[in-house]
Amino acid sequence: MKTSLALIGFMGTGKTVVGRRLAAELGKTFIELDEEIEKAAGKTIPDIFHDSGEASFRKMEAAAVKKYAGKKNLVIACGGGVVLDELNTLQLKQECVIVCLSASLQDILKRVEGDKNNRPLLDVPDRESRIKELWERRRPLYENAADLAIDTSGIDAPGVVQKILSALRKYESNHQ
Ligand code: S3P
Fold first, then answer.
1. pLDDT at 130 over 80
2. How is residue 7 annotated by DSSP?
3. I want to staple 11 with a disulfide (CB 3.0 to 4.6 A). Which of 34, 38, 80, 165 is the partner?
4. Going by C-beta distance under 8 Å and a sequence separation of 6 or more, which residues neighbour residue 1?
5. Which residues contact 88 (CB under 8 A, 6 or more apart)?
6. The ligand 1 atom nearest the CA atom of 46
7. Pairwise CA distance, residues 4 & 68, whole Å
8. pLDDT at 114
9. How does residue 166 score in pLDDT terms, banded at 50, 70 and 90?
10. What is the DSSP letter of 150?
11. DSSP helix/strand/coil, 23
12. Average pLDDT for 110-128
C-alpha cells in the first residue's frame, strides 16, 4: 500500500496549510516542494523566475519531485504547476496517493491577494483572466493525476483535512 500523500492543485487552494495539518494528523513528515526548491537554489521562487526563467524553475521542480516522490510516509505539498510535466505525476504515483484540492475562483482570488510578489505567474495586471487561462489549461492535467478530488470551497483548513481523511479511508478500503 502507498504510504505517502501528494497534494496537487491550483495556486491558492490551500495545499501548504492543509498539508502541514494533514501530516501532523497522520504522523507523517511534511515536505513543501517550493521550499525545497528554494533551499536547493539558495534563492526565492520569484528570484529564480526573474533570474533564470520558468523553464529553469521547472527543471528544479522536477529534481525536487525526483528526490522525494519515492519516499515513504511523507505528505508532499506540490507547486501548482507540478502536473505540467507528466513525468512528475508518474513519479509521484509510485508511492503517493495524489489528492487534488480545488477551490472557487473567488476563493482563489481571495487567497492569492496580497502575495503577488510570491507568485510570479500571477504578477500581472489582470489576475482573474490569468487564473482562468491557467486553470483551463491545467484542469485536465489535475483531473488525470488525481486519485482523490477535494473541493475546498467555503471550508476552513481543519474541515478540508477531515474531508481528505474521510476520502482517504474510502480510497484505502478499495485499494488494499
Ligand atoms: C506555480 C505555483 C507555485 C510555485 C510557482 C509556480 C504554478 O506554488 O511553484 O510559483 O505554476 O502554479 P503554489 O501552488 O504553492 O503557489
1. yes
2. E
3. 80
4. 172, 175, 176
5. 61, 62, 65, 69, 78, 82
6. 10
7. 10
8. 74
9. very high
10. E
11. helix
12. 87
Q: What is the pLDDT of residue 87?
A: 98
Helix (H/G/I), strand (E/B), else coil: 99: strand
**Distance from C-alpha of 54 to C-alpha of 34, rounded to nearest angstrom:** 13
Alpha carbon of 48 to ligand 1 centroid (Å): 12
Give yes or no for residue 116 having a pLDDT over 70: no
Nearest CA to ligand 1 atom 12: 80
Half-sphere exposure of 96 (CA within 13 A, CB side): 31
Q: How far is CA 168 from the centre of its chain?
A: 17
Best mutation site among 34, 65, 78, 136 for ligand 1, i.e. most ligand atoms within 8 A of its Cβ? 34
Beta strands in 1-112 (DSSP E): 4-9, 29-32, 74-77, 96-102
CA nearest neighbour of 154 among 80, 101, 104, 115: 104
pTM above 0.90, yes or no: yes
Indicate the SS3 state at residue 75: strand
Q: Please give the Cα distance from 31 to 68 (Å, whole number).
A: 8
Residues 6-56: tens digit of each pLDDT: 999 999 999 999 999 999 999 999 999 999 999 999 999 999 999 999 999
Which residues, other chains included, contact 80 with Cβ-Cβ below 8 Å and sequence gap of 6+? Answer: 8, 9, 10, 11, 13, 15, 138
State whether residue 53 is helix, strand or coil.
Answer: coil
